[in-house]
């Protein structure tokens, strides 16, 4: 599990470095996840230590969301001022996400059915 934590922390560090050096307005942890994804795709498999660590973290994932909920309650006055704009943004972002996922699913299912017929 130590190896898995090390891999996760190194990917996050690389993401933070990329964001800091390039001054990109994306969270470093998101860039780190992309780095991890690329590394796993190049390797072709997930190391056992990383798998065990990830499964352990997923079990306590709800606890990691508590700070976000506390932040929402702390800034409730700001949220109540802009609830209309937030509602519109949430609606359209959900709509766009559903559309992108549907198109991606349609594209990938066509590709898979074409491979199966060959």
Description:
- The structure is a single chain.
- The protein is mainly α and 118 residues long.
- The chain contains seven helices and no strands.
- It has helices at residues 2-22, 28-43, 48-59, 61-64, 66-74, 76-81, 83-117.
- Helix 1 packs across helix 3 (48-59).
- The longest helix is centred in the last third of the chain and has 35 residues, at 83-117.
- It is extended.
- The N and C termini lie far apart (42 Å).
Short description:
By secondary structure, the chain is an all-alpha fold. Helices cover 87% and strands 0% of the residues.
Instruction: Classify the secondary structure makeup into a structural class.
Output: mainly alpha
Residue-averaged pLDDT? 90
How many strands? 0
Order of SSEs: HHHHHHH
- Overall geometry: extended
Taking the alpha carbons of the first and last residues, their distance comes to 42 Å
Summed up, the helix count is 7
Let me know the largest β-sheet: none
Give the uncertain stretches in residue-range form: none
Q: What helical percentage do the residues reach?
A: over 70%
Strand fraction: under 5%
Output the radius of gyration. 19 Å
């Amino acid at each position: 599990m130590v190896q898995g934590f090390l891999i996760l922390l190194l990917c996050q560090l690389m993401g933070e470095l990329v964001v800091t050096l390039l001054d990109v307005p994306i969270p470093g942890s998101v860039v780190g996840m992309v780095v991890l994804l690329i590394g796993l795709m190049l390797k072709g498999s997930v190391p056992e230590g990383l798998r065990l660590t990830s499964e352990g973290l997923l079990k306590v994932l709800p606890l990691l969301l508590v700070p976000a909920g506390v932040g929402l309650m702390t800034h409730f006055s700001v949220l109540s001022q802009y609830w209309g704009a937030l509602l519109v943004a949430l609606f359209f972002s959900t709509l766009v996400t559903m559309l992108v996922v549907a198109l991606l699913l349609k594209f990938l299912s066509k590709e898979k059915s074409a491979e199966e017929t060959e």
